[in-house]
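tokens incoming
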């Protein structure tokens, strides 16, 4: 029996007449489900995004106690050492973060690797991005760098995240991951084409956790002592090299072991073969860069490395396995809002949405006092002193004042005080009309996907076409035609080969009109 949805449920792309109106839980109609409300096109986003907060807060609570995403994971302890330089320049030129400036210091780290969509006991051979989350316990407090193995993502606005994951997760009726659901979402979200091109190639199945890259994915800022900021992308480059699997190789491994990557990491550390990564950054001046065909805050795009090279900053070594999987790996909790002085947020709308969602998820999943757990607490040199009290599972109080009666600030009778401010604080001028915006720089939605296709090795390209052809044959015709239309606009050979592999009429696909409300993309080869 075919896994396709019934034919009578299929409608043309632009037929909305019989579809109910999307609303909030309060019954309010949602007029824009694609964009956070922000100050101008580039942001920042604002806290009063009620629809997004309601949507993401509910999404964070959809599963208990397992993580909704990144449920299957493995972790290890180690250390980070800074080189004291960013490229040939002193690191202090760009940032006052001590963890990136001070040489000869081994900063403790805990790293959790993971798959994204599968459940806690799902196979580690799944075609899926891999989470790459690093908790650096610096002398100035924790810094969490929460990213993936690939340098881009599927979407660029956080309000779409619950919908994306719902489309990629199992069908709520059949409880099966259905390709047509994935491509139904992607076909309406062209910014995802770049990530799809990566994930459906061999890069979508890393051979193990040791032989894969890591990336912060989002754009952050480095801030120096003068209060000057630069846009920055963070990357981990494995000293072991990068190795990926074909679908056939993955199937062979999965037939005998669903946890091969966890075993590989554990065994390597136990035998003293400690995995190591070089920490690199890409740096760009802190402005909107109109000379680029993409917004540097758009996490579906890569910064071209020939223009913004990877600059070495330090190295990370993993040299100790957890003593207990649950207490450490499973209860480890990361958040993109956990930054140290000298590292700051950009207006990246995915980063701003993640910063609310991640910590909210941890409070729900582990509890309001998850930061009191040893795996998550900062090192003793940066011990927490707060006026926060009580809550489920409290087992110590974070106070540090001489007068324990004072759990508020300010006070003239003792208690905690504010830290001294830096000589020059980073300030950002924000001006614009408050509204909901989508980026106007969309040419690279297609061009970067086409560039990636053309730079794959022949065997990687063959694997990509084979995987996409198999998927398209499981999709309703309207979705498969639209996907071929997208691929053809990325690269003519890309679209033609997918159409041939799936038995799709290329001319029929090319004849489709652009998506409603979107201009036809320029072809990357022009």
């Amino acid at each position: 029996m075919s896994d396709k949805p019934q034919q009578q449920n299929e409608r043309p792309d632009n037929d909305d007449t019989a579809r109910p109106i999307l609303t909030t839980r309060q019954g309010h109609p949602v007029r824009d489900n694609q964009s956070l409300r922000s100050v101008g096109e580039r942001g920042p986003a604002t806290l009063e995004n009620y629809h997004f907060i309601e949507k993401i807060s509910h999404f964070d609570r959809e599963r208990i106690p397992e993580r909704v995403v990144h449920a299957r994971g493995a972790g290890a302890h180690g250390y980070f050492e800074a080189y004291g330089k960013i490229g040939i320049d002193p690191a202090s030129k760009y940032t006052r973060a001590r963890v990136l400036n001070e040489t000869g210091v081994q900063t403790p780290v805990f790293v959790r690797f993971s798959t994204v969509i599968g459940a806690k006991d799902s196979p580690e051979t799944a075609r899926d991005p891999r989470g790459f989350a690093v908790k650096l316990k610096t002398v100035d407090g924790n810094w969490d760098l929460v990213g993936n193995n690939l340098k881009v993502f599927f979407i660029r606005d956080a309000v779409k995240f619950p919908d994306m994951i719902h489309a990629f997760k199992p069908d709520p009726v059949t409880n099966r991951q259905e390709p047509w659901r994935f491509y139904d979402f992607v076909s309406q979200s062209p910014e995802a084409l770049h990530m799809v091109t990566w994930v459906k190639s061999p890069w979508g199945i890393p051979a193990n956790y040791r032989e894969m890259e890591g990336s912060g994915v989002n754009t952050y800022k480095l801030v120096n002592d003068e209060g000057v900021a630069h846009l920055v992308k963070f990357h981990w480059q494995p000293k072991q090299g990068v190795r990926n699997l074909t679908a056939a190789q993955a199937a062979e491994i999965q037939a005998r072991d669903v946890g091969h990557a966890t075993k590989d990491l554990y065994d390597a550390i136990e035998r003293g073969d400690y995995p190591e990564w070089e920490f690199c950054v890409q740096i760009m001046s802190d402005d909107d860069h109109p000379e680029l065909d993409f917004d540097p805050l758009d996490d579906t795009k890569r910064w071209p490395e020939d223009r913004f090279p990877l600059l070495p900053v330090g190295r990370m070594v993993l040299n100790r396995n957890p003593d207990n999987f649950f207490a450490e790996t499973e209860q480890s909790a990361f958040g993109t809002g956990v930054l140290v002085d000298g590292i700051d947020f950009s207006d990246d709308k995915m980063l701003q949405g993640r910063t609310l969602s991640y910590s909210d998820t941890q409070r729900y999943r582990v509890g309001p006092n998850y930061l009191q757990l040893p795996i998550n607490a900062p090192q003793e040199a940066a011990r927490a002193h707060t006026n926060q009290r009580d809550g489920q599972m409290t087992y110590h109080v974070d106070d540090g004042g001489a007068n324990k009666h004072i759990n508020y600030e300010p006070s003239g009778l003792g208690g905690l005080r504010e830290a001294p401010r830096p000589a020059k604080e980073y300030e950002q001028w924000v001006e614009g009309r408050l509204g909901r915006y989508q980026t106007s720089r969309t040419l690279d939605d297609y061009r970067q996907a086409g560039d990636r296709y053309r730079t794959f090795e022949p065997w990687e390209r063959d694997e990509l076409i084979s995987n996409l052809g198999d998927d398209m044959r499981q999709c309703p015709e309207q979705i498969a035609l639209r996907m071929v239309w997208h691929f053809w606009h990325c690269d003519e050979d890309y679209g033609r080969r997918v159409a041939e592999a799936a038995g799709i009429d290329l001319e029929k696909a090319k004849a489709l009109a652009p998506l409603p409300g979107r201009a036809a993309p320029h072809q990357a080869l022009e």
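note: The longest strand covers residues 73-82.
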